[in-house]
Amino acid sequence: MRRRFLIPALLTLVTSASACAAEPVRQDILGEDSVLAAAQGVWRSHESGWILEIDEDGITRWQDTPAACYPSPTDGPTLMGQIEYRYFTAISADTARFQYLPGDGHARFERLDALPAHCTANLDTSPQAVFDVFVSVFERHYAFFDARGVDWPAQVGTARRQLRGDMSEAELFDLLAGMIAPLGDSHTKLIAQIDGERRRAQFGLGDTLPRIDATLGETPWLIGLIQQTVTDVLDEDAQHIANDRIITGTIDDRVGYLQFFTMGGFVTEFEAGTPQWAAAELAALDTIMDEALTQFEGMDAVILDLSNNRGGYDAVCRSIASRFTDAPFLGYAVSVGNEPEPVARYTIEPAEGPRFTGPVYVLTSDVTVSCGEITTMMLRQLEHVTQVGATTRGAFSTPLAKPLPNGWYLELSNERFEDTSGTAHEARGLEPDIAIHPFPEDSPVAGHAAAIAAILADLDPR
Question: Which residues contact 187 (CB under 8 A, 6 or more apart)?
Fold first, then answer.
């Protein structure tokens, strides 16, 4: 699962599932009365830098870095820092995959004889120790220094010369934030609590959102966009539904319209990140897509509007893609770290419910990020799909969570999402077939309606 949600924060979760023999056998780690015996022991993932220490009392997660190994709290400020593994799949006697949710993820763990000797709960929280862990985590796990044009060793050398043992927390935070700023990666962030104040360093948010924040303000802008779409663009039966995450309707009774603000967050009755939540999200999506695509049957085209999509749960993205194909296709592959081959490939099977395989237009912008980009990348591989709008953000990877020894919270990008040609679009985004900015500087609300009008104009000659 993944990414930053509009309201509230919701991130894609990642890990894995595989098998021990001909057929994978996934088992619950935490039963009602006991912890799965096969999962007990010490397990390490080099891909993610996590160690799981599992005994009859439950799971303790350790951060395993070249600079230090220490317990990882489960009360982080984002969902990726709060969730825990729930499922275990043996590959062999000494290797296994652990999952947060069924069907997502790919990190492989190897069994250790014992917790490594350098792992300790006695944390060194000095500026030097925190700096060393921060640097080592990036060196081991960050996947896009080259793609983002950053000379990390040079960054480290410059910052190390500024490091002092008597630095204040605020000074250290500024130093580390300055190191990640040149990456321009919105899936890489540093969050801290300093003197009772929450601080967040996150960069690479594109041009539109910072401009909107400095002028209209994001909330008034979104309200204006929603009112314009429902009142002026769509027919009278338009709906704003699914906990305000989706707009659905038609245009002139001949073009179907679906806008997703987030890929999840449709339900509120379950704790985010739990299996019950995941099942409810997909069930809610199925109901919405069944009704919408039944209404769209026989129409000239469908517009899938992801121009304001902030990402979400990867299974939702794959489920959406399954509604626009009549044949299986490879959606994408995921590689981690320096692995020469993808660790996971996702084939999209046609949905059992209603599908639409006429002309489909996917509307994007530099706000489109993460799972919104993955959906775009999958669909634009299909001949009947046209991407319209502006180039997407270029931040695909699920954030890898790394709490630092002093309690600060780091997330970074360690995965490469690749299309069927093996191309990763991280840092550059997905360029549209038809270029028109939905949120231009001189008309950030009206420009969205103009982009939809451009789609209709392209459709007419067809």
Answer: 3, 370, 395, 396, 397, 398, 399, 411, 412, 413
What does 356-416 look like in DSSP terms, one character per residue? Answer: --S-EEEEE-TT--THHHHHHHHHTTSTTEEEEES------SPEEEEE-TTS-EEEEE-EE
pTM: 0.90
Query: Do 405 and 187 contact (CB within 8 A), yes or no?
Result: no
The predicted-structure confidence for 115-131, as pLDDT tens digits, reads as follows 999 999 999 999 999 99
Residue written as tokens 């959102």? 209
Q: Return the bridge partners of 424, or none.
A: 418
Could you report the per-residue pLDDT of 418-449, keeping only the tens digit for each? 999 999 999 999 999 999 999 999 999 999 99
114: enclosing H helix or E strand: none
pLDDT score for 461: 75
Over its C-alpha atoms, the chain yields an Rg (Å, rounded) of 23
Q: CA nearest 335: which of 141, 182, 166?
A: 141
The tokens for 409 are 């919270």
What is the rounded distance in angstroms from the CA atom of residue 232 to the CA atom of residue 40? Answer: 59
CA distance 346 to 211: 36
Residue 262 to residues 225, 231, 242, 379: CA-CA distances in angstroms?
15, 21, 10, 17
Cα–Cα distance for residue pair 286/79, rounded to 1 Å = 24
Stretches in the chain below the pLDDT threshold 50: 1-22
Nearest to 234 by CA among 311, 305, 317: 305
* Confidence (pLDDT) at 323: 98
Spatial strand order of the sheet with 385-389 comes to 239-241, 246-251, 255-260, 301-305, 360-364, 385-389, 434-435
CB 373 within 8 Å of CB 429: yes
At 39, give phi and psi (nearest 5°): -90, -15
Secondary structure of 149-210 as H, E, C letters: CCCHHHHHHHHHHHCCCCCCHHHHHHHHHHHHHHHCCCCCEEEEEECCEEEEEECCCCCHHH
Residue 362 tokens, joined = 């996917």
Quick one: how far is CA 215 from the chain centroid? 27
d(CA 303, CA 320): 13
Q: At which residue do the structure tokens 């179907």 appear?
A: 256
Phi, psi of 276 (to 5 degrees): -65, -40
Burial profile 396-412: b = 16 or more Cβ within 10 angstroms, e = fewer: bbbbbbbbbbbebbbbb
pLDDT at 84: 81
Angstrom distances, CA of residue 51 to CA of 29, 42, 54, 98, 116: 16, 7, 10, 11, 9
Distance CA 378, CA 362 (A): 11
CA distance 305 to 180: 31
